[in-house]
Amino acid sequence: MKHLTLDLSGFSASAIAGAGISDSDLDGIAPRARDAFAEAMACWKRGDVGFWDLPDDHGAVADAKAAAARLPAEVDTLVVLGIGGSSLGPHALWSALVPPFGERGAGRRLLFPDNSDPATMAALLASCPPERTAYNVVTKSGGTAETAAQLLIVERHLVAAVGEEGARARLLATTDPERGGLRALAGERGWATLPVPANVGGRFSVLSAVGLYPAAVAGLDIAGLLDGARAVRDDIVAAGDDLRKNPALALAALLHWQNAEAGRPLVVVMPYADALYDCADWFRQLWGESLGKRSDIAPTPIASRMATDQHSQLQLYTEGPDDKSYLVLAPAKRPALVMPGDGPVAARPEYGYLANRQLGELIDAELRGTVASLGARQRPVATLLLDEVSSPAVGALLFLFEAAAAFAGPLYGVNPYDQPGVEEAKRLAFGALGRPGFEAEAEKLAVRPRPGGLIF
Amino acid sequence: MKHLTLDLSGFSASAIAGAGISDSDLDGIAPRARDAFAEAMACWKRGDVGFWDLPDDHGAVADAKAAAARLPAEVDTLVVLGIGGSSLGPHALWSALVPPFGERGAGRRLLFPDNSDPATMAALLASCPPERTAYNVVTKSGGTAETAAQLLIVERHLVAAVGEEGARARLLATTDPERGGLRALAGERGWATLPVPANVGGRFSVLSAVGLYPAAVAGLDIAGLLDGARAVRDDIVAAGDDLRKNPALALAALLHWQNAEAGRPLVVVMPYADALYDCADWFRQLWGESLGKRSDIAPTPIASRMATDQHSQLQLYTEGPDDKSYLVLAPAKRPALVMPGDGPVAARPEYGYLANRQLGELIDAELRGTVASLGARQRPVATLLLDEVSSPAVGALLFLFEAAAAFAGPLYGVNPYDQPGVEEAKRLAFGALGRPGFEAEAEKLAVRPRPGGLIF
Questions:
Q1: Entry pTM
Q2: Does A187 touch chain B (CB under 8 A)?
């Protein structure tokens, strides 16, 4: 693939003997993979599933850039008000492509309060002067409670400080092109809007305006994101239904095999680069919410920051149960930062081996050590290398995962595009809040005293 | 308990019928719990395991405060150079007790680069002016490669900018009181030092100088941390070996039962407060590295940010396999932040139910909805409430978990204080770097060509 190299050979019997997948196993799962490919393509061709088309949407790029350019000059921060895919997607782009600790080049700062935590929101409002802060309200349905709550607070806060006109210049709603409360409200108030295509769900929306607008405000190369995604998409479509040729289909089919046949329901995504951690966190939603629908089989995705988690989780990964597959993410190129060889630290015998080496050599050595150590214990480790952490490579990475989720859904026998299991908790929360129409749910929450004990 | 309320009744048969633990099950595991209590206490009394004594170490509080007071007045940032427990512990304290987004009161800013990522370190050095930045190098053994690498780079960076004397005023080493390369180096260079007691391992060190010094620099109430921990410790010790009376023993025994008897190896810690997320991340190390030692049985800890993950993982938690126990963390009190009732947002019928409510009511309603939804599907959910997010309550929380890990070790039949499984990966990484003495490991890393296929 352009920008990416996916190496699944660490899952194979040639790497980890009986713990891996054999050629005949591959032959055995090939027919189901072919069916899964066909089903995913049919969803696209019918128009039910639109994320496949996003890489071609040059208009969305232009619109996002134009909207970003209209922000008042004094605005230096954009706060994304959203939760789930509405926040995880742009957050992954920001973390991947902008250095941490406030060091950055062109572009504005992005903040992601994400949750509905009053401590977080209060700190946000206190630290962001209203005249210098814009807000992007993102909810496809318009009905997301957390996002509505954030908007209620922020709209008042802005109007009080910069007036109706000032607030209008600082608010942009990203939502369904036609339906929902946020679309209606934006129309009433004259807020700028950008669309989430009706056939693109939240966890597949990062390459729509949901991700593109914040990324444009941050000064990122958003056309490059789509370029990278388009290259991978075209590779995937051209490769067709042969899992030995199609990287997204192979990733989906082999992770499904690990779960269904090898007793490994956990998928640990291990970014060996801080910049890629939030891509792994975004993957948690994509994989968990798309595929977590059957009580007899579903994968549990885990994001594990490396090399940091070598000092936290590697003990478990190495000596614990063989219930996990591992997917290492890393860039092939890293910035230069040398460890000096002539100072007092390097003069200590304990530390001399690091002298005059690049720091990137150390983290890459740790990656190799961990992969080899897990492999020696017959644990399956795949690697996914980005040529570098760039907009095209990140766009390619995210698209590869989305396509894999689209293929994994039929393999698991579930619809990867819905999330019926979260509705009940939402309704119960409405009941707890006393929302009209949810009286039955409020009743269910009535505290039932339990036989004593186990409370401390 | 003072500051904390642990409610494990959601694990019981009275809450979730056959999926929960019955009174006779509790009777059945009580003898092993008694033995585990005795073994943990014996390790303490023999002097092998010292974390139990840390809450009494008033001298450590005074030393941390004194060291913080000696920092040059122009220093506004302390960077913690460490990885694993050396970083996770102080990071948990910082996130819990200091508002996000740079809003804070007295005290200096803390930064945690943690990893050995050159992109992160380069951004850190670029954004932290040397004269205004101090560094706390934390490694008990002194030999941690990532921390040594950070120190090599930082020492040179500081000396070049502020000279030998200026660097000495800005560097403090937290390490073994007598042994290791960092202790020797600090002696040679005249750096200030603070001790990690020899019988306190990294993941049990947060209430030693490892956590206390950064917290003191941040202006936190470090005596309060120990007060809260001491109260819980005294409760635990006084409760003795009866799991129906001892909260840490009950937590350990019931989580072990979930894993060993109920087929639930995953422990999902769900903080319903952003401030507590890094306490959950710290718990991942504590639980994973202490207990992840047997291929037939070990828990996999997961940190799940709530309510955010309701839009990411709840689908899986609700409809996926019944292989998880859930532990909700939340504060009983939250800051006030009202959602206005008279603006244009509240006037939309979709959003009116939020009007004039506290944002904290929303997140608490979501907590209740999720707990009820999981309970209705016979999924085991415990809750651990802090009276508020304060130093004493956070100290109590972290100590409770440490005590639970000490009890869980013998229940799992493992030593909770070592981490033998990570040694091989370390040695292989040294081999990859060409460190003298690791030639055999370098040999093992030689690339063996694998039969083609599965590389894209």
A1: 0.97
A2: no
